[in-house]
Amino acid sequence: MSKGTKVPGYMQGKGSRNPRGIIGDREIRYKCSLQNTILDVLRGRPGWQEVPGQNNIQPNVNQANPKQAGQQSTGQQQANTGKSGSGSTTQGTTSGYKGSDGDWDFYWCDREWLAQNYDTMFLYEHQKILHFRNHYELTRKNLMVKNLKRLKKQTERELGKAEGQSFEFFPTTYELPSEYHIFVEEFKKNPGIIWIMKPAARAQGRGIFLFRRLKDITDWKKGEYQPLSDPNREVPETYVVQRYIENPYLIGGRKFDVRVYVLVVSYNPLKVWLYRSGFARFSNTRFSLDSIEDTYVHLTNVAIQKNAPDYDPDKGCKWSTQQLRKYLSAKHGVEAVKKAFKGIDNIIIKSLQSVQKIIINDKHCFEMYGYDVLFDSDLKPWLIEINASPSLTASGKEDYDLKFGLLNDLLNVLDLENRLTGKEKRVGGWDLLWEDGPILADDGNMECAPNGTTASIPNSFLGCHNERKRQLRELYTAAQSIKKS
Ligand code: ADP
To answer: Alpha-carbon dihedral of residues 86, 88, 90, 91, nearest 10 degrees?
Structure first.
């Protein structure tokens, strides 16, 4: 598209959109900074057009509408920043359009790009971009726990201790070096238990180790934190030290964690979708507490497991969430599994609420989180961490199909084509879990519910059937006739 000659799509009125992926008189233009499944999905989307070049947009400082968002500090209550204003500011600011930010309608950008450009970027009404500006409040291990602890305390204060118990889904955690002394006190109170050390901002199991003795950590601490005479010494890396879950639920003697996909399209009001499919990632070696230094036993990251000497790439070490739910239901009954999975809903909502007032809300932004949840031997789910960039690289055909459907349905939810009514509770494999409050399932949607259930159940179907294509066909037909009438 040649800049300056055409007006942005939103200015041409919603009525002129058509279902082939065209905004106004032109196609939907996207940018993508990744070369994996998401790019395949975008390229396969009818009527969507790739903007050449990656991550090459020049920031455009909009003089008329300086970015308040980037100037607000963490912890401040945020209202919608509405970067494009209500539309009138935007339309009046032709200099904004002249900048290259108007070249795309949808941008799957990486976090680094957003961090560098968001504060000086101008966005039009219709533009959508991956990530909220300060997503790290939830996705950095130390900040996630800090925010959860704060909301837990506030809940206890306002609603009582019993309510606070609904936050007991994250293991006791301290930030190092800042909370070292509190940690040592706690350590001494619980002799013999196992702790896990994790760098706060790294991923894929890097830099993680388990320990039982304080000496193990003091040796490590000397290397990391002992003040050296060199004044140019780098600030020590932040770690979290966390109580290790010593009794994970085992299948075939192996530990696993569950990847759950969650889509947030707004923080204010909070609007959250939960994807039905995901997977369990198993460790390659039988679980034992005798060998706490063996990462193949204790860390379930695929990045770690694929290096195990006896790793079989054909078998991989994944189960679909459907397989897992079926297995657990057969073993423990539908009710017990329903309760366990309800615990995951609670984790999702509480964690998002813990940052709801901190995240810089922006109607242009959305986030697809990858939650890592671990069941203990009582089937209680524990939150391990939340990723803002869950891996979209497929490890095999099944994994590819899962991610392809997941991402296609994400675009269906965002609905840049304007095909939906906006009232949908389910779009493909995504179910609306929360919109300023819990969403209840429609009567006809009782999959995974125990036989004979008549009471309202939450609109949450993790690990249930995901006949997304059939559902989409029906959905679009229904939406079309509603719109016509
Ligand atoms: P990373 O971001 O490096 O993947 P995680 O916090 O996800 O770090 O931890 C990596 C893996 O270590 C998890 O997938 C899980 O298998 C294991 N793990 C992490 N924390 C705990 C814990 N508190 N108890 C038991 N296992 C854990």
So the answer is: 150
